[in-house]
Amino acid sequence: GVAESYSKQELSAFALALSVSFLEREGDYKLAEERCLQLRASSKDEDMNKNLLFVLANIYSYGLNDNEKSKLYFEEYITNYPKDELAQISQDMLEMMDFRFIPKGDEPEKMQENNMPAAFALSQNYPNPFNPETKIVYQIPEECNVKLSIYNLQGQVIRELVNESKQPGRYSIQWDGRNNSGLKVVSGVYLYVFKTGKFTETKKMILLR
């Protein structure tokens, strides 16, 4: 059978990885942390170990409110996998933590005389937390290809909202809390990532069912 093609160690690691995902959804971050550390100590799978760095960083940041440990894992991810897509998201997350407790004033957006955006920007979704829908607003000062995707805390893309060329302007789009298959995703923290050829930004949002 399928199980016979895998060693007991590999099956055990796979089961632990599944349990981490379940524990995150259930909000048991302390046990999820323990399982992740157990996996890191025993797994020899490079892809799994890479994923564990990102998962642990997010568990410490959002689940256990331990920014110092979170930074260590994000920095390790960036150092070990600098060209990986999640490395840029990790960098964004580090910047978000550095300024997490600094309130930002509601400054008016800088606009050019022709009323077009003067810079790339991604706004915080509203409402946040949300159920069942939330709105994301972004702006671009020039024609470019825009990609806006929703990630879970394991670094997996669950929904692609935008992936096309756009004219300069300000845009808004709704996310209905569903994945690319049209299924409702579970409550929790999600990341939305805005990318153009010249600009990348990541923000977090919370879905409460």
By CATH, the architecture of the largest domain is named: Alpha Horseshoe
Q: If you compute it from the alpha carbons, what radius of gyration comes out, rounded to the nearest whole angstrom?
A: 19 Å
Major beta sheet, strand line-up: 4-3-6-7
Tell me, briefly, the overall form.
globular
State the secondary-structure class.
Answer: alpha+beta
Number of DSSP-assigned strands: 7
How much strand content do the residues show? 15-25%
Q: What is the first-to-last residue Cα distance?
A: 39 Å
What is the fold named in CATH at topology level of the largest domain?
Serine Threonine Protein Phosphatase 5, Tetratricopeptide repeat
Tally of individual domains: 2
Describe the overall structure.
38% of the residues lie in helices and 24% in strands. With 209 residues, it is of the alpha+beta class. It has two domains: 96 residues, Alpha Horseshoe (Serine Threonine Protein Phosphatase 5, Tetratricopeptide repeat); 87 residues, Immunoglobulin-like (Sandwich), CATH 2.60.40. A four-stranded antiparallel sheet has the order 4-3-6-7, covered by helices on one side. A three-stranded antiparallel sheet has the order 1-2-5, with no helix packed on it. A hairpin with a 4-residue loop joins strand 6 and strand 7. Helix 1 packs antiparallel against helix 2, helix 3 packs antiparallel against helix 4 and helix 4 packs antiparallel against helix 5. The longest helix is centred in the first third of the chain and has 19 residues. It is globular and about 55 Å long. The N terminus is likely disordered.
